[in-house]
Amino acid sequence: IGTITLTDGTVLTFAVVLNPAYYGVYNIKYKDGDKDAPVFVGYNKDNDNAKNVGYKLIAEGTYSADALADKMFTIVPKSTGYSISAQGKYLKQPNLSYWNHIMFSDNAAEAGTYIFEETTTADLFKLKSTGTGINDVNDYDNLVFGNDNSGKENLATFTLSQVESYHLTVSSAGMATLCLPFNVVLPPSMTAYDFASTNVMEEGEGAYICIMQSIAGGGNTLKAGTPVIVKAEPGDYDLKITMEGSGAKTSLPGSLLRGNFMKQELVQGTDVKKFILTKDNNGVVGFYRMQASGTIGANKCWMEWTTPAGQAEARSFVFSFDEETGIVHPEVEGTIGW
Question: What's the whole-model pTM score?
Answer without folding.
Answer: 0.87
